[in-house]
Structures are given as C-alpha cells and as structure tokens.
Amino acid sequence: MEQDTAIEAFAALAQPTRLEAFRLLVRVGPKGLPALEISRQLGTKPSTLSGHLSILKRAGVLAATRHQREIHYSANLASVNALVQFLIADCCGGQIENCSEIVALLECQSADC
To answer: How far apart, in whole angstroms, are the C-alpha atoms of residue 39 and residue 53?
Structure first.
C-alpha cells in the first residue's frame, strides 16, 4: 500500500461516526448491511450517514453494492488487510520477538480464537 493511500484511509477513519460505521461493518463481515440498517444501529440520520459512508468508500475501506433500491455497504477486507500490513511492515526493525503481542493477536484472529 502506498503511503498516500494509507493516509487517506486513516483520515477517513479519523471521525467518530465513520469509525463506528467501519467497525460495525467489520464485525458484520463480508455480507455487509444496507445503509438504513447501519443508520438504525448507529442512531444516525440516514442523510448524515450517507456522507460518512461515501468518504469511507472513496478511501477504499468500504465497498458498496446496489440491491434493487438500497445500497449495501461492507468492509473492504482486502484494503483493511493492506492497511494493517502497511502499519506493521517495519515492525520492530526485523526483531520479531519485540512484536510478539501483535503477531499473537493476528494469529489468534486468523484462527478464530
């Protein structure tokens, strides 16, 4: 991932409503949720949420698909993975033992601990 792309993703996530929406969609997984359901679960006005979702989509951390008259949003997990890899690419200067907590968390997540 390029630095500018990572900065755009971080900037998009650096707002409480957007971060809440993103975290909700990460929890839900690949199937995602319709925009109105996201709004309901977050207690946010649909018109306000629409702008936030657009910013997250433009930053590449969300994907959107149209299902008849509603738009479903989901976390772009490939982009999230690339962002995490960007963050830890130079972790501990190659001394993996210094990053044991991060590695353990990632291994646990992939093994459904």
So the answer is: 10
Q: What is the CATH number of the domain that holds 83?
A: 1.10.10.10
Give the three-state DSSP class for 78: helix
Residue 37 tokens read as: 């359901």
**Residue of 40, 38, 42, 84 whose CA lies nearest to 57:** 38
How far separated are the first and last CA of the chain, in Å rounded?
28
Please tell me the total count of domains within the chain. Answer: 1
Of the candidates 45, 3, 38, the residue with the CA atom closest to the CA atom of residue 20: 38
**pTM of the shown model:** 0.83
pLDDT at 71: 94
Which residues 6+ apart lie within 8 Å of 13 measured at CB?
A: 19, 22, 56, 59, 61
Q: In what order do the strands lie in the sheet with 33-34?
A: 33-34, 70-75, 62-67
Using CA atoms, how far apart are residues 65 and 88, in angstroms rounded to an integer?
30
